[in-house]
Amino acid sequence: MARNVVITGAASGIGKATAKAFAALGDRVFMTDWKEETLNAAYNELLPQAQEGMLHKIAANVAVPEDVAKIEALVSEYGGCDVLVNSAAVFRVGLLHNAPMEDYDFQFDINVRGIFNTCKALIPHMLKKQKGAVVNVSSVSGMGGDYNMSLYCATKGAVIALSRAMAMDYSAQGVRVNIVSPSAVKTPMFLTGCSEAVREGFRKNMPDRRLCEPEWCANVIVYLASDNAEHLCGVNIPVDGGLTAWNGQPNQEK
Ligand SMILES: NC(=O)c1ccc[n+]([C@@H]2O[C@H](COP(=O)([O-])OP(=O)(O)OC[C@H]3O[C@@H](n4cnc5c(N)ncnc54)[C@H](O)[C@@H]3O)[C@@H](O)[C@H]2O)c1
What we know:
Blueprint: E1 4-8, H1 13-24, E2 28-33, H2 36-46, E3 55-59, H3 65-77, E4 83-86, H4 101-111, H5 113-129, E5 132-137, H6 150-170, E6 175-182, H7 188-191, H8 196-205, H9 214-225, E7 236-239
Parallel strand pairs: 1-2, 1-4, 2-3, 4-5, 5-6, 6-7
Helix pairs in contact: 1-9, 3-5, 4-6
The structure holds nicotinamide-adenine-dinucleotide.
């Protein structure tokens, strides 16, 4: 049976690839993003691939509860949310002692409060159905430290902790909460302003020597939301070409 799937950050990157993947399965997909123009473009791109009447779009800022209430109201018209994918996030670099307070608020408001807002609005739908799946997109940056991105790392660590604790509270009621943690993905978030030297640095460090395609994350998200993953609760899957399997020691060729 078709599910109602809400995807935040669906105008771009992983969110858009995920919307495409769910639409291909015949699910009813609600694409949401705060960038109305890019959201419209992404929606128009995916529309021919979706079943008739099964693709929706709604401009909303996840950090604003009133905007999230509009998403909730729309999904309610179609019987409530079955799957929530939180992909929307922002990223700023810089050393902590130089960071303006605005960098803290901006990243925490969207990356953490945004997930709080959407979950608070849509988990009641799932509780009513005694079934549902939430997939939160964190990052390997939430699993270990990164140079020059302490605030972003803190938001992504919070997403992992929040998701695990939510899994404790909701699993017994049929609502599974899981996490996907990518490394470098070929999306505007990573590629914008990223020199070829930095990209090559990432490729070299990655055990599989590749940067991630957004579709590879989408595939894992679709799996976590499916009944095939029915005993998976509070799991964090790194989609990172083996990066977090590495302990950081160099190759000891003798
Ligand atoms: N690209 C990477 O290398 C990478 C690595 C690890 C984790 N991630 C995570 O993956 C997720 C998706 O990122 P992406 O790579 O697809 O980036 P992206 O920039 O391509 O897409 C993010 C989307 O989120 C939207 N967004 C941002 N703030 C929003 C808000 N307040 N309300 C609604 N929408 C908002 C943006 O407009 C954009 O369309 C993010 O959570 C990101 O932190 C990305």
